[in-house]
Amino acid sequence: MRFTSEQRLDDGVLAREFTLGEIPGTLWTPGSAGSSGAAPAPLVLMAHNNGLPKAQPRLVARARHCAAYGYAVATIDAAGCGDRPRSAADEQARADMRRAIQSGEPVDEIFESYIGPLVEKAVPDWRTTLDALLALPEIGGPVGYSGWTAVGIRLAVSEPRIAAAGFFAGGYVPLAQREEARQVTIPLLFLLQWDDEGNPRQRALDLFDAFGTEEKTLHANLGGHTGTPWFEVDDGNRFFDRHLK
User: Fold this and answer.
1) Residue 109: what pLDDT?
2) pLDDT tens for residues 182-236?
3) How many beta carbons lie within 10 A of that of residue 235, not counting itself?
4) 110 located within any domain
5) Which helix (H) or strand (E) holds 223?
């Protein structure tokens, strides 16, 4: 892991850009992290939905708030996402999916052909990043996950260091992850936007029902895909407090 820049923000949080091989990422740590006598900060991996960059303003705002709350927070651009190159086939699949959603056409086949492979590529990058982050003296376990549901499901069932997860509900989850949801046994907070124009509500409710964990909570709010109330960020921090601190 090579840090390429750092900036001390006005809330005391330290923001550092890094590269790890071909993986670009950002690490936010609380002001106390690394200081003499301070305990290592618990870590939250924060993943945005497919194709959106790590510098997306909503993601950055969530990450900074979580770091100011006392967590180390990391996000990366997964393969084919953000600033990382996309193939012509990826670009075509994204365009086809966007057109189908806008026109009301069936999107399941297009979704599977694009998102399924994206999850398969993203999870190894996240695990490699996790290895490097936990080697830093200012960061310790346990580890939480927040964000993109499809990647989160795969990490929750394949990565034993993930102790709790907060998912932003999306009805469109690849078939493989819908099956894997039954194997999720860690504490789970599931956020659902009731009027999400891009994700069928019933699919999201069915997915919540499928999770195998005995400790799962559903928060549903009125509004569209990007309308998650800010107070849910505070609730998410309290959720991680219960399971990571």
Assistant:
1) 82
2) 999 999 999 999 998 777 889 999 999 999 999 999 999 998 888 889 999 999 9
3) 15
4) no
5) none
Q: First vs last Cα of the chain: how many Å apart?
A: 26
Q: Which helix (H) or strand (E) holds 45?
A: strand 41-47
Token pair of 174 as six digits: 């690849």
Is residue 177 assigned to a domain? yes
Both tokens of 143, joined, read 């580890």
**Amino acid type, 152:** G
Handedness of CA 51, 55, 60, 66 (dihedral sign): positive
- Domain extent at residue 13: 2-85+119-244
Residue 205: CATH number of its domain:
3.40.50.1820
Amino acid occupying residue 18: F
pLDDT interval class at 34 (50, 70, 90):
low
Domain assignment present for 96? no
Give the amino acid at 183.
Q
pLDDT of residue 37: 58
Say if CB 52 and CB 110 are below 8 A apart: no
Q: Is residue 202 part of a domain?
A: yes
Per-residue pLDDT averaged across 51-57, rounded?
78
Q: Give dist(CA 119, CA 176) in Å, integer.
A: 10
Give the residue carrying structure tokens 């993601």: 59
Using CA atoms, how far apart are residues 145 and 122, in angstroms rounded to an integer? 14
29 Cβ contact list (under 8 Å, min separation 6): 13, 14, 16, 41, 67, 72, 73, 138, 139
Domain count, the chain: 1
